[in-house]
Amino acid sequence: MSTTTHHPEHPATATDDDGRALRRIQVGWYINDWANAAFSATVLTVFLGPYLTSVAKEAADANGDVHPFGLAIRAGSFFPYTVSFSVLLSVGAMLLAGTVADRTGRHKELMCGFAYLGATATMGMFFLGGDRYLLGGALLVVANLAYAVSVALSYAYLPGLAGPDERDAVSSKGWAYGYAGGGLLLIANLVLFQGHEAFGLSEGTAVRICLASAGLWWALFTVVPMRRLPSRAGALPGRGGQAAAAAPVGDEPAAGSLRELGRTLRGMRRHPLTLLYLAAFLCYNDGIQTVVSQASLYGSEELGMDQTSLVTAVLLVQVVAIGGALLLGRIAHRYGAKRTILGSLVGWVVTLALGYLMPAHQPVWFYVLACMIGLVLGGSQALSRSLFSHLIPAGKEAEYFSVYKVSDRGTSWMGPLVFGLAYQVTGSYRSAIISLLVFFVIGFAVLLKVPVRRAIEAVGNPVPERL
To answer: What pLDDT, in 10s, does the model give residues 90-111?
Structure first.
């Protein structure tokens, strides 16, 4: 980051320098979304669910069950159960990492460190094959945990990247970069997968290369935020201002961070409206995350889609979501973020109902469903992120966004668990997918009751012109 000394005799020059420095940091933050979206799109959404399920079926007994740690579960439920387990583990890691980051001012170092841990685990998926479903489960747990912590820490930069009335646009642009990056890698992976015979590869080897490519992509592009972002999230030029100084690090930083975490969680009770918003997000985002992580499994196992159709559909999601994120950002600028999010939740309910009723072996309808998901996916998440950034007391960005991601990750174990249990009991993925409606309905009802203006005023932040 460039530093600028403000001289009264050259105020315009100082302002221009600050503006250029801020734009450079913004681009670094956008590229972080570009980098890590490859894991979400290629690994979680497309390839790993069906592939790990096939590996688990290779290891299954005559009843179709696998026995991790002596537990008998259906092979078809292993992937959603593993996602749930990884999410549960990530909850404590995010809370502690956010507290350490705010206490030490090492947001970037922690964010990039976890990014490289996740990227390494993802590249290790190249060795997943045969009946080694436990290896796949272990790599998924490590990669998904590291992804959660890294993303939570990146969110801490948002309050300083734009003023109150521009934050929705900046957040939406970050999501658009993510979908563009994830989509570009998916195009390459689609070419590789469809032409695997021409490349002299088996289908399984092509899938494993695609999985590993997401880790390589994540690692390479993380270099950009490493070079452009400041160590401390609040240390940004221009409109973001300066955040509160980092707390001094004592002889026992881990113990001190745990004590600070306890104070943060207790202090959040003084902001009940922020907690009410988190409760709403906790509900509806659980539905979103479960749809994203289980869509390929639903498409392959229930709708009979082949791998090419699945990759094409997710690529459609990525492309449409770029425009969807930017479009909903513009709508929020006119009508406010809360109203726009509520509208997107209605769109999610309609999309889920269509998915339940969709006939099998009809790729065109599956592509229509993908376009509908893309239209509401990026915007609902980007606007939720920017709206929450207004509800955070200054100097507590990483800690509060870690709690926010717990609301994201901490309940997204419930969705996959409900999804897996529904399949375990009924043997039907349609029953599993329709059960997710409850998350969107409850989230809508709770968000409707959140007085956003009062919530922003309660933490002492400036109120945007439109909410």
So the answer is: 888 888 888 888 888 899 999 9
Q: Which of 231, 31, 51 is nearest to 133 (CA)?
A: 51
The Cα-based distances of 364 to 155, 305, 317, 358, 359 in angstroms read 36, 11, 14, 10, 10
Q: Which is nearest to 211 in space by CA: 149, 147, 136?
A: 136
pTM (global) more than 0.85: no
What's the pLDDT tens digit per position in 341-368? 999 999 999 998 998 999 889 999 999 9
Which residues, in sequence order, are CB contacts of 367 under 8 Å at separation 6+?
Answer: 312, 313, 316
pLDDT of residue 239: 44
Which pLDDT value is given to residue 451? 94
Q: What local confidence, expressed as pLDDT, does residue 408 receive?
A: 65
